[in-house]
Amino acid sequence: MLFWLFYDVLSPHLSWLRVFRYPTTRILAAAITALLLSFLIGPWFIERLKRGQIGQQIRDDGPQTHKKKAGTPTMGGSLILFCLVVSTVLWCDLRNRLVLLALFVTVVFGMIGFADDYAKVTKKNTKGLSGKMRLLIEFAIAGAAMAYLFYSDVLPPSIRLHLQLPFTNFYTSTLVLPAWAYAAFGAFIVVGTANAVNLTDGLDGLAIGPSIINAATFLVFAYLAGVETTILVAGGNELTIAQYLHIAHIPGAAELAIFCAGLFGAGVGFLWYNTYPAQVFMGDVGSLSLGGAIGMLAVLTKNEVVLALVGGLFVIEALSVIIQVGSFKTRGKRVFRMAPIHHHYELKGWEEPKIIVRFWLISILLALMALGTLKLR
User: 102: closest CA among 137, 68, 148, 66?
Assistant: First the structure.
């Protein structure tokens, strides 16, 4: 909206507004907008949740130390979602279908999470929506987004069905999948990431920290994949930055960097209230929307495989649950004291802040390793 106003409408009359044509300017604007919105409306929003008695329900089979958190306002992810949507609408070029797809999946997954949270609050228990029903809806939404992405002309035919592999040259070593297989794979990535973030959201600030790190990492990936700036290389040839780095050049992907900036700013703003001891929890409305956004960013920037490294902490959390359930069903024994794995360390006696910060550090390390794949090709 402001991009259209400043650049399309006013810049012919006020030349200095042409600075908003550059994604870098709007990346900063989106991050600052989302962050300031969080700071401005956060206290009011939390107070409204308290008045509405929107309190967290604590599982009986969880760590006993969590009993003291009962009643803490939840559904705080609505604040993240609101700030992200506002900053995206204000600063992105809304004619860009990559942005619209990312925003669509993020908002709808947030709505699914909202319905789940609302059911928990009204029923005063931790069950919420049926797990099978929730997964069915998530796969339907993600599948529809993938079908549109891979059967339309949003992506050029030269990259549409190509799976970008780390440590390889995209233009010489790539894996091409049938459209139906890529759409199914992409849907699995989005739904899997959403639920992995949901599983990680068990301690104050534990899920939002890696989500912020993921947003910053995909900001870099999206900008490098989409920026049209060319550089002169040996032989006098001009290449885009993506071609120089041997990654997929995706026209329009630089606009996704602005979306990532909004996600980053909204996440940092929410962390202000969610850091230990939390004033508010994000709830499923936050974890599902964040996971859906990260999954879509991986697909839209052709980093589906690298996501396993960028979001490695989420992968570890999800795998710990899978391993625990599989071991108990097949052997009758548990591998961890409790799953997801952050509860295992709680029961080992680690203080909550220590677990949170150490998991953040692991996430930072994994993100740096993922960025390193840009040069190791």
Answer: 148
